[in-house]
Amino acid sequence: MGFKFKLGPLGIYRQLHQYTGQTLAPHTAIFHLYSSAPYSEVTWHVIHSGTVVEYGLFVKHCKVEVYLLELKLCENSDPTNELTCHFSKADAIATIEKEMRQLFSIPSEKETRLWSRYMSNAYEQVSNLDSTVQDAGLYHGQVLLIEVKNEDGTWPRQPFPAKVSGFSYSCRESPSQSQPGICGLSNLGNTCFMNSALQCLSNTPLLTEYFLEDKYEAEINHDNPLGMRGEIAEAYAELIKQMWSGRHSHVAPRMFKTQVGRFAPQFSGYQQQDSQELLAFLLDGLHEDLNRVKKKPYLELKDANGRPDSVVAKEAWENHRLRNDSIIVDIFHGLFKSTLVCPKCSKVSVTFDPFCYLTLPLPLKKDRSMDVSLVFAGLHRRPTQYRVVVPMMGAVSDLCEALSKLSKIPAENMVVTDVYNHRFHKIFQMDEGLSHIMPKDNIFVYEVCKSSEDGAECITLSVYFREKRIRQPSTSSGTVLCGQPLLISVPKHKLTLDHLYNVVLEQIGHYIKFPLTKEYSNVCLDRGICNGSSGSCEVEEMEHQDGDEEGREKASEPESCQSEGCAHDLLGKEGQHHKKHLFTFSLVNSYGTSERNSITTEGKLLKLNSYATLAIDLDPDTRKLLFDEQESQAFEKDASMLQSQKKKTNVALKDCIELFTTMETLGEHDPWYCPNCKKHQQATKKFDLWSLPRILVVHLKRFSYNRYWRDKLDTVVEFPIRDLSMSEFVCDPTADPYVYDLIAVSNHYGAMGVGHYTAYAKNKVNGKWYYFDDSSVSMASEDQIVTKAAYVLFYQRRDSKQHIAPSLPAESELASEECDGMDTN
Q: What is the pLDDT of residues 496-512, one digit of tens each?
């Protein structure tokens, strides 16, 4: 295979700009790749020799910048006059300021300030001119405003009071004093996942009081090599103070997101992310930034060796605290007990490990019901709908076996398809997972014969129906797909045009109108050959191996109609001369949109591959005259369709905890190294809870992944708002009672990878529940909280000391807020 490269012409740059709507960075080279292999497609590629943008502070991610960032520039005196310009993410803010001075004719001696606008009335000053566009957190379409100092030394815009730490946040002043903590967070572009997690943490009283009372300042660990130099803790503290000031209806957490993106590049862009993953990063980042241990000692792990659990657990916790001592450990950390047992030598290994949150599996359904339509190969039999029960993680073969029990059709004679828009969207293989079939898919199962009665090999062909249309100047095709596609099975030695014609007639015979007109009166609906003119397709003669002359002779001999109920009997045998075919064939692609060649020679074998696609072309008059449209769409319903589908059952939170603590056997690819056997073994493993934290974070594992299945589980998990007793799951016999009350919930609506995040949270000052949907905040009631969207739960241990809120502005009535409606970001 040979390849050639060619630089693209200038027109390609314009085409790419029109196609993507974005501007290519300078020094971008475009080439396309030629391959001498057949059917290869010419593909344009973009390469770059210019700017490489670096993401992250500790974990470096380098990306070639292909498209420049679009920014909208305007003056403070005329903010409606926006000029669109493009910059590299590596450009300094000073470069943008210089460009704006030139665009708006601002003299160099005039003092200026830059502001970024996030909402209609939300502005944030961009004060560090040495930072890059990337570090400043500017995004595509961002509006930048330049402000010129007045002659009297004042500024037209009054800035928000500067913070000691240097952080500032875009805020919207509340028209009246509002309840502290009842503050929304602006969506900066697919950042609802971050807003949801932040609202849950903000309404965790023990943590919020710690930051509002400035206790964090004395504990920031700037030198921790595992931390973020204290910058995450400082950014979070400033955000919490804004949210709990009582002065703002919502805040834009721009600088907080920028700081998070610097240390965790996966959160630096504006793609939808996972609120639990952001929460895990933030808790770990705050812990390391606030770790009171300045120099972590080296500790050697010891095996239990039969010692009492209480001794081993105490040792593990003390060792953990020697290296990890922060407010996060104080509040969020608990202790697991892990027990491994070797299946060969019965070696028991017990370890105790700290955890910051519980990830609980949801009980999976073992089976699912599917509605499918079976298309029979027999004459005059309508397709029938069946409801089958199949394993959730089963294969297509399981579907066929279940259908075979109901229909008595052998499973090996079935082909499962997904029909969409009058064609086969997909033809499934027997070993494919059923996870590829979605509930809304239109599944048709066809009865086909893999071999004929005499043992001859058969091939299976796809047949589409098309109606001929008068070609319009604006259309590229003279046919449109219609009706239900067919899968037909034909013996190879009978694969002639006439035999193919009659096999199709047999399949569609039950919806041909009778009596036929004189013009079509000699149509046979049996497997016998109808003599007459050919269809409009070209044929290649089948190549036969030596000794196959007999088969060729048989293939060319006409067969007589001998089946009972043949159309000859129905129509009378007086017209033995065929006058006109009902339809013609075309060999087309799998979409039925383009013809490859045509069949014109009759009596000779067609050279077709299995699952080749043929189209039956009907003119509108013939279709209307001869075909019963109502009958063609008619289905029978099997008794199984009367069975009601299983209703989705709710699951109790305790069921998830029991599943988490159930003993399991390690997988073949995840064995445990047994120190006695000196080899890896598939040991049994069991998790238990030894001690629980003051704030228990429960992550419901709604997103399921395996070889076949990638899905979100929308099971409703019934979790208590108050009085969650965890004592029965704690194996420490000396532990005090563990009773928890719910304080926050992170919700996820939609499917995996998309959707929207919101939060419910209980305000620690007035004890009322609120619903946080980005910048919108509204009152909520307890009966609204338990839904299938619940994703991360925050519980506070009841016997935790009741902390009194620090001095805050006087409480006032919560201003009525209009809910903006659910955002799909």
A: 888 888 888 877 777 77
